[in-house]
Amino acid sequence: MKKIQMVDLYGQYLNIKSEIDEAIRKVIESTAFIRGGEVGQFEKELADYLGTSHAVACGNGTDALQIAMMALEMRPGDEVITTPFTFIATVEVIRLLGMRPILVDVEPDSFNMDPRQLERVITARTRAVVPVHLFGQCAGMKEILDVAGRHGLFVIEDNAQALGADYTFSDGTSKKAGTIGHIGTTSFFPSKNLGAFGDGGALFTGDDGLAERLRSIVNHGMKERYHYERVGVNSRLDTLQAAILRVKLKYLDQYHQARQRVASWYDRTLSGIDELTIPARRPFSTHIFHQYTIQVPPGIRNDLRNWLREAEIPSTVYYPLPLHLQEAYLDLGYGKGDLPVSEQLCERVLSLPVHTEMEDEQLRFITDRVRAFFSR
User: Fold this and answer.
1) CB neighbour list of residue 258: distance below 8 Å, 6 or more residues apart
2) Do 178 and 152 fall into the same domain?
3) Residues 55 and 178 in one domain
4) Contact predicate 210/71, CB 8 Å
């Protein structure tokens, strides 16, 4: 049996090696390493895949969030509502721009923002809501959009973990995650479902005016060469990464299906364990399983991790400490007990290996080992 990894990037590369190598060779021969033609082609293909008007590539997913807020002309002192159960970038950019993160708790089974808590934290200073589509499944966007609409708020989707997931509205219409709010953002960090061979990110919008601003901001605020219409940043997706992502985009739905197969295996074999909770599915969203995250009682989680580690099975805790209890953000004024669901999840969650190259033998070994732990 092959060594089990959380993500097998090399195995994935080998399956498309000839296409990737050829794409890289062409870029090297062109020497157009920044803003080469592959970038524009990738943006168009990504927009087409998502069914939106514009995709704007940038340097990474964190930049994408910052650029979105800059394009919406948000200002120091504004309040932005998001959740504490997510990667640090979601609140980091809010603070970097001099704004204040306002945190609401998440649902205990989906890990996503609880829309029922939004209304109570909105003030005259609130400008935007940033739902995070965590682990591969959409947040409750209909409810979030309804609240945002009543209060005139922007909605920025942090879609770093759910690119390609489908959200279905009650009338049967559907949209891709990241294309539902005013702006969607994503990351092409190598371990993402659509991962580059380095850093990368993108923003999505159906608004022509916003798209023009986004394109300007990612390139120093430039309107035309050496003419600058606004303050911008240097956050350009390089041509090599765009070329690689163009190849991998063709396989993205196939990658999702491979991850969903792994998740189905875990569901079938682990759902009968009383002390273990498998990931919940929301009827309005497909789940593309950027992570497969179980919940176990906090007193035994570390024992389970050690049990798996002894068998050379990796696992990861996403996330060990909620953002409101992180040292860098204690000045926000939150304390232990203020956001109890997120705090409890940080003590209970454990992510098992899930990637596109997993084999039945590996899956059987993992699930047999988990079941053996709970049957001791």
Assistant:
1) 355, 356, 357, 358
2) yes
3) yes
4) yes
Length of the chain as a residue count: 376
Cα→Cα distances 194→123, 185, 289, 327, 355, Å: 37, 13, 12, 32, 11
Q: Which residues contact 369 (CB under 8 A, 6 or more apart)?
A: 307, 308, 311, 313
What are the structure tokens assigned to 27, written together?
């870029």
- Of 205, 224, 249, the residue that ends a domain is 249
Angle, to 10 degrees, between the axis of helix 340-348 and the axis of helix 298-310? Answer: 30
How many domains does one find in the chain? 2
pTM: 0.97
| Residue 161 is assigned to a structural domain of this protein | yes
Q: What is the CATH number of the domain that holds 334?
A: 3.90.1150.10
The answer to whether residue 34 sits within a structural domain is yes
3-class DSSP state of 266: helix
Q: What is the pLDDT of residues 283-307, one digit of tens each?
A: 999 999 999 999 999 989 999 999 9
Same domain, 145 and 38: yes
What is the Cα–Cα distance from 39 to 242, expressed in whole angstroms?
Answer: 5
Task: Give the C-alpha separation, 376 to 371, whole Å.
Answer: 9
Q: Concatenate the DSSP letters of all residues of 77-115 into one string.
A: T-EEEE-SSS-THHHHHHHHTT-EEEE--B-TTT-SB-G
Evaluate if residue 376 carries a pLDDT over 90. Answer: no
Find the domain containing 317 and state its range. 252-374
351 Cβ contact partners less than 8 Å away, ≥ 6 residues apart = 6, 135, 291, 292, 293, 294, 315, 316, 317, 318
